[in-house]
Amino acid sequence: MSFTTSPAQASPPGTGSAPTAATPLTLARCRALVRPALVDAVGRLHPWPGEMAAFALGWCGTGGAPDPGASQGKGVRQALAVLGAEAVGASGETAVPAAVAVELVHVFSLLHDDIMDGDETRRHRETVWKAYGTGPAVLAGDALLAIALQTLSETPGALGGAAVRQLSATLTRLVRGQAEDLLFADRPWTGPGAVRPDAYRAMAEDKTGALLGCAAGLGALLGGAPAGTVTALDRAGRHLGVAFQAVDDLLGIWGDPARTGKPVHGDLRQRRKTYPVIAALSSEGRPARELAALLASPLPLDESAALRAATLAEAAGGRAATLDEARRHLDAAHACLRGVALAPRTVREIEGLLDHLLHRNM
């Protein structure tokens, strides 16, 4: 099928407009479509890592006990895969193996990232390593990665091999992004060796954008789209990932813990090199100098010092620069979608999802 979009049909790019009210319905529809296959994939695991996987997905509490209050996430990557297929005229069911695979890879990456970063909470609950132990959490992550690749390799038809190759390349990028993120911790806050915004942007594209782009691209691939269309959707997802990471970094400093599920100023207290801090330190003026001195101090950042660091980062332009970064990449994602022939209705759904992610909890 061939589709075109017109300026009247496409949502405006990331200019700060509110996301469409239909976005939660789109997410719910895609989750419902994917859920049976996702449950089936997790059910194929050994019961112990399967229980930890179910815990990470918000399906149960520790020990497999019911936990009706647990968050199961929005299912953004699942939705991008389904919408990627629908955007090229295929049924959303075509993309279910891709949706399952990217969701499981996402959870795998979270389990391992939480261990590497020392994070003890996620979505208002203990992380898997905190609840079950480090070794078991590593095992659960490995199990999720294995079943993700197996699920995608079993895709009916002739496109399964190409899909596995695309996901495998994405995994390489995920590792590269995580490696850079970990190495940033040992770099100085200022001077020639400091992390600059362009280096952080490249890291975020690999660590966060690669899987979002893979989700949309895999959906289009399994939907039978030509290579150019698959590439355009993949690039849109990568730009979305940079915008997503920028907003996540902003919420890590100025977000409401009751809504984000993360402790206030947690990133600052752990001295993580997030985009707002990097952008602030790249500016001139007293707030940037005071922030650098505070972060370079050997003293731990208590609540008062972390609040001071957040104030200085905002005064040095870190918050505004982060919002600008998110909007630029959201605009670029919209441009990727408008550059190829796609189903107009699905484009509106995807663009609503993009805007929803920029405005989340803000």
Topology:
Layout: H1 23-43, H2 47-56, H3 76-87, H4 96-117, E1 121-122, E2 125-126, H5 128-132, H6 134-153, H7 160-184, H8 197-222, H9 227-254, H10 257-260, H11 266-269, H12 275-281, H13 286-296, H14 303-315, H15 318-338, H16 344-359
Antiparallel strand pairs: 1-2
Helix pairs in contact: 1-3, 1-4, 2-6, 3-4, 3-8, 3-16, 4-6, 4-7, 4-8, 7-8, 8-9, 9-15, 9-16, 12-14, 12-15, 13-14, 15-16
Keywords:
362 residues, mainly alpha, Farnesyl Diphosphate Synthase, two-stranded antiparallel ribbon, 16 helices, 68% helix, disordered N terminus
Short description:
It is built from 16 helices and two strands. With 362 residues, it is an all-alpha fold. A two-stranded antiparallel ribbon has the order 1-2.
Protein described:
- The protein is mainly alpha-helical and 362 residues long.
- The protein has one domain: Orthogonal Bundle (Farnesyl Diphosphate Synthase), CATH 1.10.600.
- The protein is 68% helix and 1% strand.
- It contains 16 helices and 2 strands.
- It has a two-stranded antiparallel ribbon with strand order 1-2.
